[in-house]
Amino acid sequence: TDGSMPCWSPCGKKIAFTAEKNDNRDIYYMDADGSNIFRLTTHPDGDVNPAWSPDGSMIAFNSSRSGSSQIWRTNVTDGDGKETWGYNLTQLTQDTPHKRVNNYHSWSPNGLWLAFEADRDRDDPEIYLANAVDGTNQQRLTFTRALDEVPEWSFDSKQIIFSSDMHGEPKSGNYDIYIMDIDGSNLKRLTNTEEQASNPSMSPDGTKIAYDLSQGRESEIYVIDADGANPKSLGKGSNPAWSPFLKEKSK
């Protein structure tokens, strides 16, 4: 079983991830030391990209089980607190008439919203919000001809960071990191690079943002201050994820 797309649980004791077994990808989670692996979903169309709810009770993920990539969520345990797969499974986004794709998503720290990217009407992804419980009250936040992708939340649930190639040639793939309020206002560019800055992740204490910086096949993990200052390379790697313990240590 090969694992990818790791996501820490809010308590820092478990890690959810995508794993492929017998040519099928599903959502699993395990203890932080790699023990007690549990398979949370099982479907032939594949489930990927888990995101844990802030209270640790649910995991949202992408699945093509409805015919195109949509966002679903499921409880981690049943009503008696027992580990089980597919309990209270709910589809949060729906197919549009043109079968557009709903992709990467992240849960707001206050548990109220999911931010996600969706390609719905112009063959380029934009950033949306949806109610995290049932997928209602969907709101489009970006209106560009660029590729707006990989939304993540600020620690206080008031802002969203994401990657986009909105500066320069449209859909050039030259991404930078941006931040905006959750209504789409106050857009600010945090990086300015000729390479591809993507996969942003804000630290639990709100002071730092980690991201990928890649050119060709080589990728490094960088960290900047929350205002975009003081970029620093941490070495080769991709898809950075902060440990929840950082917030505890900063108190």
UniProtKB/TrEMBL annotation:
It holds the Pfam family PD40. InterPro entries: 6-blade_b-propeller_TolB-like (IPR011042), WD40 (IPR011659). Signal peptide: none annotated. Gene3D superfamilies: TolB, C-terminal domain. Residues 228-251 are annotated as: Disordered. Belongs to the TolB family. This is DUF5050 domain-containing protein. It comes from marine sediment metagenome.
